[in-house]
UniProtKB/TrEMBL annotation:
UniProt keyword list: Flavoprotein, Oxidoreductase
InterPro entries the record matches: FAD-dep_OxRdtase_2_FAD-bd, FAD/NAD-bd_sf
Protein name as it appears in the record: 3-ketosteroid-delta-1-dehydrogenase
GO molecular function: oxidoreductase activity
The organism's place on the tree of life at top rank: Bacteria
Positions of the FAD-dependent oxidoreductase 2 FAD-binding domain: 20-61
Length: 61
């Protein structure tokens, strides 16, 4: 299993990346990303916040 983690500053040009599934938002999307990864797909999660979890992380449960 390959694991990649990166924070890219806003406004910085980003190169092309090819993945099987693009997940926008790491809240509920994290479950979809995990299921896809466990099925053998390459996954990229894009999150606008500086922390993982989106609104789900702030909801308190």
């Amino acid at each position: 299993m390959r694991t990649h983690s990166a924070t890219i500053p806003a406004g910085l040009p980003v190169g092309d990346t090819c993945v099987d599934l693009l997940v926008v938002g790491s809240g509920t999307g994290m479950a979809a990303a995990l299921a896809a990864h466990e099925s053998g797909l390459s996954v990229l999660i894009v999150e606008k916040s500086s922390y993982v979890g989106g609104s789900t992380a702030r909801s308190g449960g």
